[in-house]
Design brief:
By secondary structure, this protein is of the alpha+beta class. Helices cover 54% and strands 18% of the residues. The protein has a 5-stranded antiparallel beta sheet.
């Protein structure tokens, strides 16, 4: 059973965040079905997202938890960001907007969808570090970043 840590908004749709599994500082995880709805995915992109977030494919970056009695797949921050980047580029290429796709490929942070997700994820992180001093919160963030990157410095 997982408690919802924070409910943020992404492009007018709610995104539920939960605490990451395991010990130590980690970025909050997002409910995959919420992210898919907020991204307004085509059937093909929904299928790809489902395939990529399957525990067999996603490894330690996906888990099934019970939220309010319902089984929900939650995915890590890094998997969510990677999926958003890939799907946003795919959408632009499908629409024939090659220059825009190439620009985003070079700097994916230009996407309004990504900005909306990052704002919601930051609010979830703020909720997770509530009660910590600024210094403790900063160290928590750095340690979470390190854990997200497989312990890399």
């Amino acid at each position: 059973m997982a408690d919802v840590l924070h409910i943020g908004m992404m492009l007018g749709k709610p995104l539920r965040f939960v605490r990451a599994p395991g010990e130590g500082p980690r970025f909050p995880w997002v409910v995959e079905s919420d992210l898919a709805k907020a991204m307004n995915l085509s059937r093909n992109h929904r299928r790809v997202m489902k395939m990529m977030t399957d525990e067999g494919e996603a490894g330690d970056d996906a888990m099934i938890v019970r939220i309010d009695g319902k089984a929900e797949r939650c995915i890590s921050h890094s998997l969510a960001r990677g999926l958003m980047d890939a799907i946003e580029i795919s959408r632009l290429r499908e629409a024939g907007e090659i220059e825009a796709a190439q620009a985003i490929d070079a700097d994916i942070t230009t996407s309004p969808m990504v900005w909306a997700y990052v704002a919601a994820a930051k609010a979830a992180m703020d909720e997770q570090t509530k009660g910590m001093s600024d210094g403790e919160s900063f160290v928590f963030f750095l340690d979470a970043m390190k854990a997200e990157n497989g312990g890399a410095q």
